[in-house]
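User: Reviewer 2 asked us to show a designed sequence for the structure in our supplementary figure. I'm pasting the structure tokens here. Could you produce the per-position amino acids so we can include them in the response letter?
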């Protein structure tokens, strides 16, 4: 396998609209790094479950976390999981209902969830916080041992997966392009608002630079 590509398998091969399938690792990383949210699916007692959670990437690993009491995380350790990261970019309005679509960027990954040991948890939590807001961790009070114990972190190497992307204008049947029907794209964009201070925050505490300069799409390498 080319190390620059995700591993293409029966699960990851894009069948419908294969031209939208991408296996380039850097494209996958760009989408993973563009949002902190993902959905992780597990199988517990032969039943499917899915949960939204924060994710972060460090080099060629993806991580997610939750409570040590979570039955999802406890059941996921050393078992197959699937992770999806999705960005919705717009509604695509065609001249027929059948050809309406969406512009989007999506990464789906498969692998075996690995439990991050207690000795590595603090480093992983620092990566999590600094991946969200670079420079934040060093401004916080030290993490407490009981907080580390209460947190479970799972990770897996980014190896088996695929990217699927749809962009651009609607695609209609040739005979429909002359119909007097509006067609086009309604873009969707994520906007970042101005930081709102906690209502009990003392007035002399200014917004730090790492908050003023916040933007999505940063990563820890």
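Assistant: Here is a per-position design you can include in the supplement:
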């Amino acid at each position: 396998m080319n190390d620059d590509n995700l591993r293409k398998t029966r699960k990851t091969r894009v069948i419908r609209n294969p031209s939208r399938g991408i296996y380039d690792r850097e494209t996958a990383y760009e989408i993973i790094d563009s949002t902190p949210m993902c959905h992780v699916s597990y199988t517990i007692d032969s039943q499917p479950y899915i949960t939204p959670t924060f994710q972060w990437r460090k080099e060629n690993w993806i991580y997610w976390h939750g409570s040590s009491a979570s039955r999802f995380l406890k059941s996921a350790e050393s078992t197959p999981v699937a992770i999806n990261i999705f960005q919705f970019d717009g509604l695509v309005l065609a001249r027929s209902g059948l050809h309406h679509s969406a512009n989007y960027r999506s990464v789906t990954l498969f692998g075996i969830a690995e439990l991050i040991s207690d000795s590595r948890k603090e480093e992983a939590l620092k990566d999590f916080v600094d991946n969200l807001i670079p420079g934040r961790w060093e401004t916080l009070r030290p993490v407490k041992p009981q907080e580390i114990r209460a947190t479970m972190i799972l990770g897996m190497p980014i190896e088996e997966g695929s990217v699927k992307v749809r962009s651009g204008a609607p695609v209609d049947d040739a005979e429909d392009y002359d119909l007097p029907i509006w067609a086009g794209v309604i873009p969707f964009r994520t906007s970042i608002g101005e930081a709102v201070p906690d209502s009990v925050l003392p007035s002399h505490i200014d917004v730090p630079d790492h908050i003023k300069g916040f933007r999505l799409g940063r990563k820890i390498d």
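For the response letter, you might also mention the following. DSSP finds five helices and ten strands in the chain. Residues 18-90+103-168 form a domain with the Pnp Oxidase; Chain A fold (CATH 2.30.110.10).
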